[in-house]
């Protein structure tokens, strides 16, 4: 328990920043009209390629005996890839709606 409290006290500023980012994200997303939600989310999902690259870098620099870092890195690569592919699929379906029918 002492270690947890010590960790929180050492990283207090980072915790405040993360909590403020969560509240800011909720406020920003909550004010987006429903019509714009799908295009914005598909674009945001496509940007998650950065997550994939970061996870690959973390996995490459992790010690081979650190199974937690490798497992979390692998999970981040898989979920980031699913997010990117999903973003492109949704964007493609939205663009199909604007094409003229034959």
UniProtKB/TrEMBL annotation:
Domain NAD(P) transhydrogenase alpha subunit C-terminal: 15-100
GO cellular component: plasma membrane
Catalysed conversion reaction: NAD(+) + NADPH + H(+)(in) = NADH + NADP(+) + H(+)(out)
Organism superkingdom: Bacteria
Keywords per UniProt: Cell inner membrane, Cell membrane, Membrane, NAD, NADP, Translocase, Transmembrane, Transmembrane helix
UniProt-annotated location(s): Cell inner membrane
InterPro entries: NADP_transhyd_a_C
GO MF term list: NADP binding; proton-translocating NAD(P)+ transhydrogenase activity
GO biological process terms held by the UniProt record: NADPH regeneration
Topology in membrane: Multi-pass membrane protein
Membrane spanning residue stretches: 14-32, 44-62, 68-91
Pfam families on file: PNTB_4TM
Enzyme Commission code: 7.1.1.1
Predominant place of localization: membrane
Record function comment: The transhydrogenation between NADH and NADP is coupled to respiration and ATP hydrolysis and functions as a proton pump across the membrane.
Protein name: proton-translocating NAD(P)(+) transhydrogenase
Species the sequence originates in: Pinibacter aurantiacus
């Amino acid at each position: 328990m002492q270690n947890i409290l010590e960790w929180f006290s050492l990283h207090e500023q980072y915790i405040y920043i993360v909590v403020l980012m969560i509240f800011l994200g909720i406020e920003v997303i909550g004010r987006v009209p429903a019509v714009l939600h799908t295009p914005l989310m598909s674009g945001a999902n496509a940007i998650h390629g950065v997550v994939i690259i970061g996870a690959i870098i973390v996995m490459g620099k992790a010690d081979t005996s650190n199974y937690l870092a490798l497992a979390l890195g692998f999970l981040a690569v898989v979920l980031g890839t699913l997010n990117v592919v999903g973003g492109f699929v949704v964007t493609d379906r939205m663009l199909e709606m604007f094409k003229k029918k034959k």
